[in-house]
Design goal:
The chain has 62 residues and is mostly beta strands. It has one domain. The protein contains 1 helix and 4 strands; from the N terminus they run ββββα. The protein has a two-stranded antiparallel sheet with strand order 1-2. A two-stranded antiparallel sheet has the order 3-4. Strand 3 and strand 4 form a beta hairpin. The longest helix is centred in the C-terminal third of the chain and has 8 residues. It starts with a strand and ends with a helix.
């Protein structure tokens, strides 16, 4: 669950099922837009235990 702490608004919620072939979840993409920030929910399943392991899945989303 991703929540904006400034106003308590839920931005995204993921219900993860047990098991399956994936070991990670790429939750969102965050980037600067003008003077603020833009968040895009992804909810992309992936495999890896570290940030470096996930880079092949993350890079195409940037």
């Amino acid at each position: 669950r991703l929540v904006d702490e400034t106003n308590g608004q839920e931005m995204a919620r993921y219900t993860l099922t047990g098991g399956g072939q994936y070991t990670a979840q790429i939750m969102a993409k965050v980037h600067r837009q003008g003077s603020g920030w833009q968040m895009t929910a992804l909810g992309e399943p992936a495999n890896g235990r570290t940030f470096q392991d996930l880079m092949p899945t993350i890079l195409p989303k940037l």
